[in-house]
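Researcher: Let's do a round of design. I'm pasting the structure tokens now; please hold your answer until I've finished.
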């Protein structure tokens, strides 16, 4: 007959040899990897641009106008740093009236350099 554990006793644990993860620690990423990651993180994403186009396309003219009034030129600059896709989208809409995939570097047009828009989404409505 097998021995039954007493009330306050635990059953024996099985052998766990080899079940633990190695205790070796990997080193930190090198500077080249860190710099490449920083460059990649600010590269415009065509997928994110597509989402922005979808969302803006679903908005009414009134909502677009309200968004345009709410975003000051200073806020637009901050948004462009956060969302480089937004800059490419705005350029595409201002230039041709429709947006495509964002370029890797949004081009600076004469309109943008000499005569900035008053609102962040001024050319959209």
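Researcher: That's everything. Go ahead.
Model: Designed sequence:
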């Amino acid at each position: 007959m097998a021995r039954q554990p007493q009330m306050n006793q635990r059953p024996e644990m099985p052998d766990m040899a080899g079940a633990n993860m190695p205790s070796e620690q990997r080193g930190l990423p090198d500077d080249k990897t860190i710099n490449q990651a920083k460059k990649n993180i600010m590269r415009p994403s065509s997928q994110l641009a597509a989402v922005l186009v979808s969302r803006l396309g679903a908005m009414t003219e009134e909502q677009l106008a309200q968004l345009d009034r709410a975003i000051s030129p200073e806020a637009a600059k901050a948004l462009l740093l956060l969302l480089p896709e937004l800059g490419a989208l705005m350029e595409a809409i201002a230039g041709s009236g429709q947006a495509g995939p964002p370029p890797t570097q949004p081009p600076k047009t004469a309109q943008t350099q000499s005569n900035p828009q008053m609102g962040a989404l001024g050319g959209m409505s």
